[in-house]
Amino acid sequence: MIIIKTEQEIQKMWEAGKLLASVHREIAQMIEPGISTYEIDQFVEEYLERHGATAEQKGYMGYEYATCASINDEICHGFPRKKPLEDGDIVGIDMVVNLDGWLADSAWTYGVGNISEEAQKLLDVTKESLYLGIEQAVIGNRIGDISHAIQSYVEPKGFSVVRNFVGHGIGKDIHEDPQVPHFGRPGRGPRLMEGMVLTIEPMINIGAYGCTIDANGWTARTIDGKLSAQYEHTLAITEKGPIILTDQDSLE
Predict the structure, then answer these.
(1) Label partner for 109 (CA 20 to 30 A): which of 9, 205, 228, 248?
(2) Would you kindly state where each structural domain of the chain is located, as residue ranges?
(3) Is the full-model pTM beyond 0.90?
(4) Domain 7-251 CATH superfamily
(5) Quick one: what percent of the chain has pLDDT higher than 90?
């Protein structure tokens, strides 16, 4: 069942989103060779606590951390670890913020030090695909219009779109209806209505789109060991168009 949010509820989610965006702005200043994703995870948990919020995914289905930290060939759900990041790595930091019972979800992929041209192209294409998907998030369109906009941009660039993980509705729960695939045909799926709040979160690979799951039962990684990137926003469908609730640029 798709849960429609009121203007007041969307405003509460927007407050959670602004806080989440501010965390990502802080992380961007921290990312450099030598820092560990465990240190970043500890920072996030403490930052949220100072601002009256909590990390929603900590404890979710037994997950132990405030963030997911996915390095290089890890697609998503990577565990924070104490091993320092190295020059040339890419790392995706994904988190869900709970502020007064309302949630916001956003992931961002960061280059560590000097990354390769190929890695930079992957990051650029993945981020652009997110915003092309968001452009389709308007009243009257369908979920498939978002999906198609992403896939039809990414694949001609020589990259692949992960099929195993999708975006989703969000509100008081992390995962609500509808699912939002990042591949598919236009004009298919649920119609977008005012008051829907979604995450769009393309995960894009340099190589094949398939994945394997590590022994920890969480971490997904590419089947060929090639790089993967993810960018994600939470957004509301409104009569004025999509409003990005986790927009970092709006903090300036």
Answers:
(1) 9
(2) 7-251
(3) yes
(4) Creatinase/methionine aminopeptidase superfamily (3.90.230.10)
(5) 98
